Amino acid sequence: MGFSFRRMWTIVRKEFIHIVRDPRTLGLVLILPVMMLILLGYAVANDVKDLPLALADQSQTDVSRRFVERFSVTDFFKVRYLAQDEAQILQLLDEGLVRAGLLIPEDFGRRLSTGETGTVQFYVDASNPATAQTAQLAAETISQAASQEILIQRLSRSPVPLELRLPVDAHMRFLYNPDMRRMNFMIPGLVAVILQIQTLLLTAFAIVREREQGTLEQLIVTPIRPWELMLGKILPFVLVAMLNVAMTVGVGFLLFGVDVAGSITLLALLSLVFLLSSLGLGVLISNLARTQMQAMYLSSFIMMPTFILAGLLFPRENMPWLAYYTGYLLPVTYFLEIVRGIILKGIGAEYLWPNIWPMAAFGVAVFLISVLLFRKRLE
Question: How confident is the model at residue 232 (pLDDT cuts 50, 70, 90)?
Fold first, then answer.
């Protein structure tokens, strides 16, 4: 029996009819790749610039102000906070509000005016080694340029030869990851992203599978309430996911040497909040999708941007506004800051609160939406 173009065309025509009859799946297949390309393209096409900087100018002299101006006019740093001392700079770094800090001591102007060497202290959040190296190079370059300008002025004013030494000495202090190990930055982030992907896959097909297997009607005729069904779909996976939290953190320590600097109890509690939010998001997808194919595409639309928009690979501060604010729609964005804050910085809930409450609110919101969507279908 030879090849028949007519028979083959019959099958092709039948498949096209199936595709056209399911416009929701067709829309997902055509639109989602374009949307992901736009979002991810904007997110990765950026350089490290405008790093938020905390400044403490205790000298308050003309020479110190000119030194600060050199940091302000570049694209590398953006002065966001004016601090009083080292303690305030370190607090802002702990809270994640800035990525670098500059402390100019009180005797800076006096030492330069008397021909001595003025010392400044530069603090860098080294939890992201790539960003820290860029900040280090930029700070050293700016300091050397300022030193050369001051040195030229000294030489032009002095009638006698002077010792050729740079008048400004910038001391670098790397915080949270002093060795700037790339693994210390990546492992906590991978823990969060892996948990996000797993929880989505666990629950995204929950309601869809019931519908396609014909068992959803059996659940509908039972006296179970929508919120009870949603909780029943989520809670069995919570235990599995919590075991995965313990296993991934343990493997990160045993194989990669990434220790937990903060409270393990706090990490476990906030991981539970994150898992409930992420599992709830999976159930919401399951409620929105009519078929497992639709559930797969919707899950992929969340999983793929997770690697970029949440801040796993690139700092979110440098992303365009579209990519930056889209990242807030992912619970893993908040959990990434939390897990890195606990594991690398060892900070407590008081510093993590700006990320805790949005993550918890997100979980409550997706759960309520899932209940409402399922109740609407019951009616």
Answer: confident
Question: Rounded CA gap, 161 and 369, in Å?
Answer: 77
Report the half-sphere exposure of 35 (CA within 13 A, side-chain side). 14
CB atoms within 10 A of CB 260: 18
* Tokens at 103, concatenated: 């402390």
Tens digits of residue pLDDT in 33-50? 666 556 555 555 556 677
Burial class (CB in 10 A: 0-12, 13-18, 19+), 115: exposed
Is residue 328 within 8 A of residue 358, CB to CB? The reply is: yes
pLDDT tens digits, residue range 318-354?
777 877 888 888 889 999 999 999 998 999 999 999 9
Structure tokens at 276: 């409930």
Q: In what order do the strands lie in the sheet with 118-125?
A: 77-82, 51-57, 100-104, 118-125, 168-175
**Highest mean predicted confidence (pLDDT) among 63-77, 224-238, 303-317:** 63-77
Going by CATH, does the domain composed of 51-175 fall within 3.30.1330.80?
Answer: no
Pairing of strands 168-175, 51-57: unpaired
- Give the start-to-end residue ranges of the domains of the chain: 51-175, 181-378
CA–CA distance from 261 to each of 198, 249, 343, 346 (Å)? 25, 12, 5, 4
Q: Categorize the per-residue pLDDT at 371 as very low, low, confident or very high, splitting at 50, 70 and 90.
A: confident
Distance CA 107, CA 214 (A): 78
d(CA 27, CA 60): 61
